[in-house]
Amino acid sequence: MLKTALAVAACALAFHAHAALFEDDEARRAILDLRQKVDAVQQRATGDIQKATEDNAQLRRGLLDLSSQIESLRNELAALRGQNEKLTRDVSDLQRTQKDITQGVDERLRKFEPAKVSVDGKEFVAEPAEKQEFDAALAVLRKGDFAGAQTGFVAFINRYPQSGYRSSALFWLGNAQYATRNYREAVVNFRALVANEPDHMRAPEALLSLANSQVELKDTKSARKTLDDLVKAYPQSEAAAVAKERLVKLK
Among 190, 197, 199, 196, which residue's Cα sits nearest to residue 226? Predict the structure, then answer.
């Protein structure tokens, strides 16, 4: 019995030992499988992390490149704005220069273009040179250079025989001749004024100056007739009032 019991016990122990060994092998295999799975997971995780790190680095490089491009574009835009502002200023300067040039050309052209003038209550169109010569001769007369004024007005009348200044030029020429005692020529020019333009503002004065010249020439009869004509033709003029006084003295 004892032997049998011992044998049974030995078998039980052997069975339990075998079972324990079997269980240890399974556990080791499970552990190995688990480790392999963990290693695989770690490897995949490491790969994913490396890939993510690389992707991250690439993304950062992309962002840096993009930032650099944006900065470059900003610099180019700023440069373009600066160029645009400069071009705007240049265009504005050119426009002002063109305007100044145009105004200058217009002013120079106006110096050579006929212009409306008003002399002795009469308006007409005159060439710039024509006006300049008349004004120059009149300025000489006003300075008291009567001989020079005669030369200037004679030259003017010969150069511009159809000028609107003609009657005024004849009047001042006659006065310059009267002042230099060239009475005969003065008579001719005063008569020409009245004959050519009896409605001229200077016509009454021309008749009075004509009578004065005739008196200087001792032609009293002609002087009286001239004064009579003056009073009849221009009764409201100041010259007519003076003529009436002269007529009394000539009687």
Answer: 190
